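Final report, closing paragraph on structural work. Over the funding period we assembled a curated collection of sequence-structure pairs, and we close with a single example.
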Amino acid sequence: MLQLSDVTFKFGETTLFENLSFRVHAGHRVGIVGRNGVGKSTLFNLIRRQLQTEEGVIDFPRKWRLAWLNQNVAPSERTAMDFVIDGHHALRNTQQQITHAEKAGDDLQLATLLGQYDDLGGYQIEAEAGRVLHGLGFKKEDFSKAHREFSGGWRIRLNLAQTLMTPSDLMLLDEPTNHLDLEATFWLQNWIDRYEGTLVCVSHDREFLDRAVHNIIHLDHLRAWEYKGDYSSFERQRAERLERESITYERQENERARIERFVNRFRAKPTKKKQVQSRIKMLERMQLTPPLRSQSPYRIQIPNPLRQDNPMISLDEANLGYGNTTVLSKVTLRIYAGNRIGVLGLNGAGKSTLLKSISGDIQPLSGSLQISNHTKLGYFAQHQLELLNGENSPFAQLLSEEPITEQTARNYLGGWGFRGQDIFRPIRQFSGGEKARLVLALITRAQPSVLLLDEPTNHLDIEIRDELTLALQEYAGAMLIVAHDRHMLRNSVDEFWLVRNGTVTPFEGDLDDYESLVKENDDWDNSKESKRASQKDLRRHRAAARSAIKNLVQRRTEIETLLDAHHAELEGLNKSLMDPDELHKMDGLEIQHRTKQHASLKNRIKVLESEWDSLVESIDDS
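Its predicted structure, as stored:
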């Protein structure tokens, strides 16, 4: 297992972790969550031994192979295909040895190495790499392009593909969906479902976490808090925990106030001197632990439009594209007041072309695009982050667009998470997430009647995504959105348009229907490249299945032994708590301790019995 014990780490004068501990069992899939700046990426660097702890231990089996998603890789001359296969270090090493053996004429060594190459899947490696590249949105003609020819977002996709191609027992994925579209996110979800190693994933995509992980580790207040279940389950459990802590804190405060009243009342009475001193010592020993707060730092309000026409936007027989290239043909659509539309379609189908055309960034090649007189557009796209004046501050940027007082700016920008001196800090010092928040704040401040949002959640953490989703629900204008964040789409749009085969049509279905459509039309797995699995692969898969059943049976036996022990211990506690003579011998603290122990045992038995039921079902189905 991966185990962190009492880890303390400081970055300069700032303490990021203090006595942080958690464990991840082999084969488990865990999501790491927490606010930006809490240390999620730093935690990965500690696990990778790129940073050293001040105190504490990070340990996992030496035999474990480690893979991680590197967000920053220098542009390379390697082709996309070669770059991705480079992730399989053992295979590349064997290839080099084969070359040396061929040059040396060492036939015996060559025969041995060719056997190793086959065992490593060398004869199927290009088919497997092609499957990964295709799943992440690359076309076949992209496979031979140099790594450096791709844009930053696409290079990160290549980095992810290389990571997935790296044989591993422990995989660390830091924001794997950040530069993926919806279809690539679907594919990655399915890939993770088949991954047999241990996964630790940092993500701000709640639906991805709901489907990809079984446990959540929440980094907060320098420590790690472990929760069983997906992200939605974590939110419910955390809310319940915060409520319990709040109640406990209130009781502690009431008790402290009661003791202080006694001390103040009888401090001057000699006959009460010992009792007063005793209570003063009690006050000194009391340690009030304030409850943790889960309040979001964001309070977004999108100003509603002053006026809306019908229709607001009209496209009639419009051909949309660039130069002499038509991307979308004969588009005839209307956007009316209050429409809330999600735009679906494969990468490269023309989703961004549609939004750019409506926004005026590019002009229709032919046909008609009409925007009504009172329609004001608010257009967000990733490239706008780079158009911000880096020397400006958020306040100066806002002031350049409308006359505004400092207090009004503070009130508005504070809702977007810019507080204190942040509103005067140069934009060049901002992270990608801060720039995205600022651009969204500037766009919505202008009271647009139609919002055109192209991947607005990239770089944003879960809390700002949730707050933005709530604000969009309250927004009275029309909206056209392209996003890979399924939670936002499910909770902010009422209908979908499908961009496909060079045109745009209404999609009669929801996101689940669209995911099914994407899978049905994915023909890569039916191609010749995907059918080159050898008989050795088949034998290996069957052996793995037999091994899995053996492990399930072994785990079932372990659980049965634990349940017997727990039930025996529980029976003993029941007898002691129901025996008047035993209770008479115990003080209040001992009774409280045994009661908590009793509840804890019952909970552990419940969890183990649930796991036992699942194991029995899995064994019976095999």
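The two ends are 26 Å apart (CA to CA). The first strand starts at residue 2 and ends at 11. We thank the funder for supporting this effort.
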